[in-house]
Amino acid sequence: MLAVYSVVVQHVTHQSPINHAELGPYPFVLPLQFGASTLLVISAFFICVTIRRGETGKWLRNRLARLLPAYLLAVVITYGVSRAVAPAFGWYVPNVTDLAANLLLVQAWSPTFHWIDASYWTLPVQVMAFFAAALLWPRRWTRGGALPWLLWSLVVVPLVIRFVWRDDVDAAQWIRSVFDGLALHRVALFGVGIAIWLWTRDRFSGKHLAAYLVAVLVAQDAHSRFADTWSTVAFGVILAGIVAAAGGPDWDIPGLRQLATPIRWLGGISFGVYLVHQELGFVLARFLLDVGVGAWGRLVACVAMAVVLGWAMTRLVEQPCHRWLTGDMLLRARVAGNAVVEAIRDLPQVPATPDDLPRQTRRVNPAAADPLTPLPQWAMATSQLR
Asked: pLDDT (tens digit, 9 = 90+) per residue, 252-296?
């Protein structure tokens, strides 16, 4: 929760005047960029926690059903609002190509694509992480000594590519597209989440974890050419808190205990808040600025809008779509599959004579219509759904 709402405040107070100079200044500025990185670390940690509980394909379907419907709707809404207001504001007007690229999660693969909302950069990264986890978990990459080597490669390999091939000036476009499209400068953040989980399972020593965290922090600062070291320091402090929370007892202490209910509620709608807070917040801030609302009023209104719309996105889109895609829809598919199997079984099984068969069938396989031939493999598999 802290990560998402720090992103909201940072984008309102710091990022909005960068994107649109007329929207600033605000009463205070939160310039430290650590929230999105924290989200990826936490996402990787809970991938490790949840993927172990059942069949990998079902887990992947569950993750995508939670993530994609709300995201796709948020893209369409933000696109429509931007198309409606951007010409009057003098802002960039997204086109159909931008919409398609954002819906397909390929915004970072070409400089001709523009982000409908720049905060959406974490969504393609998370989806790739889900597919990678589903691919690697059943295999030996998650066992024994292979996993530490994999985690360290997430730190070292992108650094080598970044400073040898992916130069900011001379690099070929295809190298930039692959590097940025795969978010190689961010993949080590998933390694952090995995490393913390391994440490809680006594598969990483404390010294190994500490060395890995320091290496990731240095690598992240190096990817930005050490231009934002204070954000890296703030991220390091947050990582220390995550490690303490993951390895210690629940923080059931006075103060936090009384705030448990609102914290839980805000945490439950955090993904919806993340989807609607930035570009729509910029639009609201511009409207408020034009009617003379002051800096504090714009700040409070933008945060309140993010919470209200985030709640609506969660309750009206994310949760019902997840239930339908993982529950009702699958139940209907099972019922339909069972009906197909029963219909096949009820077909009349009349033995055919060779004279009744087409000439080419008699030559190739005279026994093709044998009533004892078993059901096709797909039908047998469908029957197991019952």
From this structure: 666 666 677 888 888 899 999 999 999 999 999 999 999 999 999
Tokens of 57: 């394909």
Query: Are 275 and 67 spatial neighbours (Cβ–Cβ below 8 Å)?
Result: no
Q: Residue 137 — φ and ψ, nearest 5°?
A: -60, -45
CA–CA separation, 254 and 264 (whole Å):
16
The amino acid that residue 304 corresponds to is A
Running DSSP on this structure, what letter comes out for residue 140? G
- Which among 261, 304, 266, 271 is positioned nearest to 285, based on CA atoms? 304
Structure tokens at 333: 């598919």
Cα 357 to Cα 2, 149, 192, 345: the distances in Å are 72, 61, 65, 22
Positive or negative: CA dihedral 302, 304, 307, 313: negative
pLDDT greater than 60 at residue 206: yes
Q: How far apart (Å, rounded) are the C-alpha atoms in residues 306 and 25?
A: 20
pTM score of the predicted model: 0.81
Confidence band (pLDDT; 50, 70, 90) for 327? Answer: confident
Q: What amino acid occupies position 216? A: V
Those residues with Cβ within 8 angstroms of residue 352's Cβ, 6 or more apart along the chain or in another chain: 369
What's the CA gap between 5 and 271, in Å, rounded?
A: 10
Q: Where are the domains of the chain?
A: 2-322, 334-383
Residue 213 contacts residue 192 (beta carbons within 8 Å): yes
Gyration radius of the chain's alpha carbons: 26
Longest CA pairwise span in the chain (Å): 91
Rounded Cα–Cα distance for residues 114 and 183 (Å): 16
Q: Specify whether the CB–CB gap between 1 and 238 falls below 8 A.
A: no
Which helix (H) or strand (E) segment holds residue 367: the answer is none
